[in-house]
Design a protein that fits this description.
This protein is mainly β. It has one helix and five strands; from the N terminus they run ββαβββ.
């Protein structure tokens, strides 16, 4: 299992207002798990110092890095 972090992004993408640590088998599983966190705020998914995906709360789109 690999550790991923889903950062909850504050207004205007200025900074993280929270973080959720997740243990997932691969990027696809992490993207699926992080997608459940999208509500009113964007989410940035990272694996260590590697960006994996960004979830846009407004459009409900996922941008894989």
């Amino acid at each position: 299992m690999t550790t991923y972090r889903a950062y909850i992004v504050g207004p205007h993408s200025h900074r993280s207002i929270g973080v959720v640590n997740m243990e997932c088998s691969d990027d696809d599983a992490a993207v699926t798990s992080a997608s459940r966190l999208v509500d009113r705020h964007d989410i940035e998914l990272w694996q260590m110092d590697r960006p994996v995906a960004r979830f846009d709360a407004g459009s409900k789109q996922v941008f894989r890095k």
